[in-house]
Amino acid sequence: MELTTARAVRTRSRSTTPSRRDDRWGWGGEAEALTTITVRDNPVAARDPELGRALEEVLEEALAGAGLGAVTVRFRVCSEPSEVLVFLCKVEGTPVADPGPGGEQFRWWSPLMRTPADLAAALMESLDLRRQRRSGAAPRLASA
Hints:
By secondary structure, the protein is an alpha+beta fold.
């Protein structure tokens, strides 16, 4: 079953006009843009609807500052019905037709997780590393 979030998630894209909005993920100096998160498969919600909704909310919050554009998300349950629910998450951005410097397609597989907090921590760590790589790849101009 394919689900698309009912509302576009606010993300940020580069702009020459700095944003005045406080941003807890440290993406300051960027203007807002829209992104769409499409959840193609969430078997977690079939086993635990409350957990499934919580995971999708974590995704919306975490991806809101990443500037990834449209992303597709899939969850997989990795435990038997009688066991504690363990799952993985895959987030994949739209393929980039002409990737310039720092313009690669975003792909991320989570480790095995049990809670929304696990998902938030792992995804934010990945997004933070991506942001650091991208900012380190950009040439720095010497101040005059």
